[in-house]
Amino acid sequence: MSKVFIALQANEETRPVIEAIEADNPHAVVNREPAMVKIDAEHMLTINRESIEELMGRPYDLQELQINLITLSGNMDEDEDSLTLTWNE
Amino acid sequence: MTTTAANSGTTAKTPTAKSGAPGAKLNMKDRYRVMTRDLGWEPTYQSREAIYPYVEYEGIKVHDWDAWEDPFRLTMDAYWKFQAEKERKFYAIVDAHAQNNGHLHITDGRYLSALKIFLQAISPGEYAAHRGFARAGREFAGVGTQVACQMQAIDEIRHAQTQVHALSNYNKFYDGFHAFADARDRMWYTSVPRSFFDDAMSAGPFEFMIAIGFSFEYVLTNLLFVPFMSGAAYNGDLATVTFGFSAQSDEARHMTLGLECIKFMLEQDPDNLPIVQAWIDKWFWRGFRVLGLVSTMMDYMLPKRVMSWREAWNIYGIENGTALFRDLARYGIKPPKGWDDAEQAIDHMSHQFMLAFHQWNFGTSFHTWVPSDEDMDWLSEKYPTTFDRYYRPRWEHIKKLEAAGTPFKNVGLAQLCQTCQLPCVFTEPGDPTTLCHREVEYKGEHYHFCSDGCQDVFDNEPEKFIQSWLPMPHLFQEDLAGSVPDWMQWVGLINDTDNGEYVGSGDEQNFTAWRRQTTSNS
Predict the structure, then answer these.
(1) In terms of CB atoms within 10 Å, which end of chain A has fewer, N or C?
(2) Name one GO molecular function term (chain A) (predicted).
């Protein structure tokens, strides 16, 4: 099975985002590299707005991710509630 | 009360808001529809064919342009907001870098060579991509595509500008940065990315999207921007990390656009498959050759290294590329033709290319050096099957000659590949002791190639590639008449300053002296 991934800059804004991704995707592997965090997951990864808002304590627009996004891999789909990455096999 | 950036997040909770009512907010999908599709119209004064003359001549059949959708669903209003925030962050950090002697915080002056190659070879490519996407946005017939290309055109010029601004701080203190624009057009190693982008920009709009949007962005930029920028962070280079990650935040959108483009073509008509496959084969190999430059930066020029070129390839080439092509197999797409040759080359290319740079370093606007014993041990560990066997003995030999005061300089000119324009310094797949060289006769002229991949590209489009401008033949043309000093002036290279060995260079002396001053008052 193929892995999707997303990499974010390592900073205060992304800390709760990464925490939310970890909580919502127990199969994901978080790699902390210099200045960045790369999260790999078999087949699919989901980022949920509500989980991030819960940790941030404020409303969050998923498009804000773009500011700290470094790279991603997989077929992407985004609406206001979630962003998913998947490979079809 | 919400922050501006959180508006759509908040509105998602109030689905009762009616569109059209004052203050009502649309959800993301509706907003995308209104702010992209609804901006288009059916022309009546002119035919669609007259307005979009280039969308059909490549043979790609499109039945429904509306099937093209940006999965980020980014609209221009949100685009400006997020890009403005990226720019504010970027310039705050670049100011801090300049105000805090950022040029002395790098691990070692050798690191500057990687930045010089970046500025000479990559940043002008960003500008070329800007021009290319401005054109593609005009030539594509669908509104979703046009808007996405417009954003990418603006992104690319932002990348060129932020890179020039960030690196201008280094230009105040070090040699070799000043003539990057001339180098882009004239220097032998920068003609490699130049020819890549010129080839893409002179292709049709769909091929351009495969070249830049798919091969370069999706398959290859991860190798350039992600581990190299992480490496810049490791080497204390605040300015480069900042422009790199700021650019890469756009690249994620570009990669998505590239992948969407390829799926769009394949879903529109089964006749598109062979055309798309041929472009994938061509542009994978073209991109792979450009990345030869990056392999030397990662294995040889970062004083502190995050991962080897081989390790980066394993993650972003093999793992990610395999996943991608496995996904596209449902359309009948196969991995690129040069995939196996590329895999064979990975453990050799940085060494072969760096040895070439070193022997021709009188003609490079950056410094080179023989790797230290510690660096060679690192290379042995990272390349256990190749470095000690094929490359350490050569470096040891070069080191001995340099110690004896009789350094080897290759004053002959390199045989260039007609397609990728790299010197033919690479070896046969599966046989690292035999130089790879291919030759083709076309209309009475001989053309030379570094690999089967590059020969294939030529064979498919000979009339395009016989027109290639090559830097070595130019040296013997009228204006330069074979004079190396005249050539140096023409490419903006200051002899004994910008070029040659790092040890003993002005950059080394200044970096060492200035760094000493940071902890001393004398």
Answers:
(1) N
(2) monooxygenase activity
Task: With CB atoms and an 8 Å threshold, state whether B6 touches A60.
Answer: yes
Calpha distance B149→B86 (Å, rounded): 19
Q: What share of chain B is helix, strand, coil (3-state, %, to 5)?
A: 65, 5, 30
Domains in chain B: ranges and CATH? 67-510 (1.10.620.20)
**What ipTM was assigned to the predicted interfaces of this complex?**
0.89
pLDDT tens per residue, range A18-57? 999 999 999 999 999 888 999 999 999 999 999 999 999 9
Q: Amino acid identity of B257?
A: L
Considering only the C-alpha atoms of chain B, give the largest distance between any 2 of them, rounded to a whole number of Å.
83
Sequence-ordered list of residues with C-beta below 8 angstroms from that of B47, at least 6 positions apart, any chain:
none
- CA distance linking residue B422 with residue B414, whole number of Å: 9
Kindly state the tokens that stand for B156.
Answer: 């690319």
Amino acid at B302: L
pLDDT of amino acid B22:
59
> B195 to each of A27, B146, B153, B191, B302, how far by Cα in Å?
43, 26, 19, 6, 26
User: What is the CA angle B125-B130-B133, rounded to 5?
Assistant: 120
Size of interface A-B (CB pairs under 8 A): 126
Contacts of B512 (CB under 8 A, 6+ apart): B109
Structural domains of chain A sorted by starting position, each given as residue range(s) with its CATH number in brackets: 3-86 (3.90.56.10)
Structure tokens at B227: 């581990």
Residues of chain B where predicted confidence (pLDDT) is lower than 70:
1-23
CA distances, B245 to each of B162, B225, B239 (Å) = 11, 8, 10
Cβ-count burial B349-376 (b if 16+ within 10 Å, e if not): bbbbbbbbbbbbbebbbbbbbbbeeebb
**Residues B185, B190, B192: CA angle, nearest 5 degrees:** 105
Q: Please report, as a single letter, which amino acid is at residue A53.
A: E
What's the pLDDT tens digit per position in B224-244?
Answer: 778 888 888 889 998 888 888
Assess contact for B301 and B113: CB atoms under 8 A. Answer: yes
Q: Hey, is the C-beta of B314 within 8 angstroms of any chain A C-beta? A: no
Q: Note which residues in 8-47 of chain B have CB less than 8 A from chain A.
A: 8-12, 27-29
pLDDT at residue B11, rounded to an integer: 40
Q: Which of A2, A58, A62 sits opposite B327 (nearest CB)?
A: A2
Q: For position B231, what pLDDT does the model report? A: 85
CA atoms within 13 A on the CB side of B357: 31
B466 close to A (CB below 8 A)? no
Distance separating alpha carbons of residues B294 and B288, to the nearest angstrom: 10
With CA atoms as reference, report the closest residue to A51 among A42, A60, A43: A60
Q: Which residues pair with A76 in a beta bridge?
A: A85
CB pair distance less than 8 Å for B245 and A9: yes
**Model pTM above 0.90:** yes
User: Residues for chain A: how many in total?
Assistant: 89
Burial of B385 from C-beta contacts in 10 A (0-12 / 13-18 / 19+)? exposed
CB half-sphere exposure, B310, CA atoms < 13 A: 17
